[in-house]
Amino acid sequence: MLSHNNVAALNCQMDALVKQHCAFLFNRHPSLASPHLPIYNEGWTLWDGPSKIPSLNRPTLYGLIMDPVTQTWWVRHKHFPLEAKETIDWEACSEDMLALKPGHQRWITKHASAKCGVGTTLVKWKYQDDDKCPRCNASEDTAHVLQCQAKGANEAWSGSMAKLMTYLVESRTHPCLQRAFFENLS
């Protein structure tokens, strides 16, 4: 059990680390520096461009702080080019993710960020010696899981595509969108 002095020392260390990280971020991303003057004795404030955020709730805070960091991570890890970042409807993506069950949210996040149990990741994590797909013996990364041509994989994919097309037709999706979905997924 930690004594009061040990807890105080840990708090001081954490505070110093947070300040050091903030300084690093401001030096690396000068646009993050606040152009707004604080009101006397106001404490921390949060701004979205020229607008002050009057109520700090978790979703607002996460959106303002984490979204730019997350988007930069996607670009830095070459999941899409920097130019594409501005063309993505991040709000729609967020709303759609929240509409999913937690298990599906977790799967999409892990799969999209390549932090799931595929061959290349399991080798990196030192859980296995090779990165081979158990179905076809090719190198297995997250893209391969969706593109594997092994026996049985095509049948599962075709069945899923048929279900999707049935749903799109039944929900009266515009035929051009149906065709775009089908062509891009294929």
Written account of the structure:
This protein is mainly α and 186 residues long. The chain has a domain at 151-186. The protein has helices spanning 4-28, 58-76, 90-99, 102-112, 119-124, 142-147, 153-170, 175-185, and strands at 47-48, 51-52. β1 (47-48) and β2 (51-52) form a beta hairpin.
Brief summary:
With 186 residues, the chain is mainly alpha-helical.
As residue ranges, the low-confidence spans are none
Q: What is the chain-wise order of helices and strands?
A: HEEHHHHHHH
Q: Alpha-carbon distance between the termini?
A: 58 Å
Number of helix segments? Answer: 8
Major sheet description: 2 strands, antiparallel
| Range of strand content | under 5%
Structural class: mainly alpha
Shape category: extended
Q: Could you tell me the number of beta strands?
A: 2
Q: Percent helix among the residues? A: 55-70%
Arithmetic mean of pLDDT: 82
The radius of gyration computed from the alpha-carbon positions, rounded to a whole number of angstroms, is: 23 Å
Strand order in the largest sheet: 1-2
List the defining traits of the structure above:
2 strands; mainly alpha; 186 residues; 57% helix
List the helices and strands and how they pair.
Layout: H1 4-28, E1 47-48, E2 51-52, H2 58-76, H3 90-99, H4 102-112, H5 119-124, H6 142-147, H7 153-170, H8 175-185
Antiparallel strand pairs: 1-2
